[in-house]
TGTP2-like protein (Mya arenaria), 194 residues
Amino acid sequence: MAGIIEEDHISMKNAFKTNGLDGLKQMIVDNRDKWESIPVRIAVTGNSGVGKSSFINAFLGLKPNAPGAAAVGITETTMQVKAYPHPMNENFVLYDLPGVGTQLFPRESYLEKVDFQKYDFFVILSATRFTENDAWLGHKVKLLQKKFFFVRTKIDSDMENEKEDFGEDFNRERSLSKIRADAQDNLRKFQEQC
Ligand SMILES: Nc1nc2c(ncn2[C@@H]2O[C@H](COP(=O)(O)OP(=O)(O)OP(=O)(O)O)[C@@H](O)[C@H]2O)c(=O)[nH]1
Ligand SMILES: [Mg+2]
């Protein structure tokens, strides 16, 4: 059966043999929901100020000044790792990390300070420009043989800047495509270097 591992295939057969169609149905439902009971630790990382804490608040549906929201600010804000379990499933935990490459969190000690290897998955946030730190973080995730999503933030201010810079010639779709193409290009180069 395509998409079903041998082990599941055997369990499904056994469930059917023992409890008929109801048994099989129950097994499928249990399997469908089992991901919910597996803890997933997701690190939100990137340069300082790119919007990591804001991203977590947005993800959890919290306003920045709401109780329990991650602190956000216009200066270096997050100074220690903090866990944010999702209200609908406490096994799904987002970790707000300090920004990499500041005086307090230089690259040399970053991985150790944030316990980088303990996460299952990473979200690398980046604003305005693809930086050396973005590539460095991606590389470190790859070394752990884990995966990351790359998220470009502050698109709203980019669009405002473009409007101001180009006035009548401003074209939102064109500007967005440019940002997308730049991110893809940088990620491709990064893949080639790894
Ligand atoms: N315009 C705009 N501002 C944003 C966005 N995301 C975050 N900000 C602002 O950027 C500033 C920094 O946001 P934070 O969420 O504190 O950034 P951070 O990456 O957690 O920063 P550190 O904890 O210092 O590493 C705040 O003033 C936010 O309001 C965005 O998508 N658009
Ligand atoms: Mg922060």
